[in-house]
Amino acid sequence: MGRNRATLADVARLAGLSKTAASMVLNGREGTRLSAEAHQRVFAAAEELGYRPNVAARSLRTRKTATIAFVSDIVATTRFAGGLIRGALDAARERDHVLLITETQGDAAFEQYAIEAMLDRQVDGVIYAAMATRRLAVPPAILGGPVVLLNATSPVQLQLPCVLPDDERAGAMVAETLLAQGHRDRIALIGRNRQKESDPEISLAAEARLRGIRSTLAATGVTLLVEGFCPEWLPEHGYAATRRLLDRPTRPSAIICMNDRLAFGAYQALGEAGLTIPGDLSVISFDDDPIASWLRPGLSTAALPHEQMGRRAVELLLDGDAVGPSFVPMPLRRRRSVAAPAG
Fold this sequence. Notes:
Blueprint: H1 8-15, H2 19-26, H3 36-49, H4 55-62, E1 67-72, H5 82-94, E2 98-103, H6 108-120, E3 126-135, E4 147-153, E5 162-165, H7 167-180, E6 187-192, H8 194-198, H9 205-218, E7 226-229, H10 235-246, E8 254-257, H11 260-272, E9 282-287, E10 300-303, H12 306-319, E11 325-328, E12 332-333
Parallel strand pairs: 1-2, 1-3, 3-4, 4-5, 5-11, 6-7, 6-8, 8-9, 9-10
Antiparallel strand pairs: 10-12
Helix pairs in contact: 1-2, 1-3, 5-12, 7-9, 10-11
């Protein structure tokens, strides 16, 4: 390139104005009495010279660096939750901020190093994110400035602002969908897991989804036909749980799966048994994994709103007035896996 970086003085000289006047125009400060034509000369000079403001110098004056730290456990390399970062990036860009992203992979020593490196760069705040919705142990180092938890909560004594998917309302919508189709006394559920439901450091979603399902069914006098337990929310466990359901004397008319991966297994078990979806059984689920729309028939599921959550986290951080949890709705993706009960 060979060319020295243009300075504010260069811009002022080319525009025929003082350095102070050029600075006020470029920084959008009110109170200048310059003509519109003078403003245009400053902007034209800045563009011609390729002038970029000295962010470091500005940060010394304003104590703001227009940067946000995004610290996660394993979000960044997880395709399923990449929307968290996309939403945060978009919101940061719209607010003229840059996102600095680091992933800890659960390594406490590296996490400490990464956080200190971010803070050394005088970030304006920290978004601390988790892939799975759960309660986090928050590193003390990030508590000295603005913090928003993303897809996570903190120990109750910290009362940090946090952004969460509205899993309880999603559970209610799933139950309402089946009730609206006429399912009542033969609704089964697979994915019960006592560890996920009782330990908030493992999952907040399981208990909230179950609460939404049960309360909505109870309001119309309906109880679940059977609740199948699974050691993990994986396809093989959904397959095994569905096989057990089909061995019962009373076959369910609908299956609620606690996540889409369980539903993938359920689809396989039902297909092997010669049963059709939704002709013989309806299936509905949570998360909206990318594969859900490719199943045949497409799987109806309550979507995790990752992009909206990432966006909300940036907005709360920069606005600085958030208290407690902020719940983001989980939209129901209505596909072809739910219909009225057979017979």
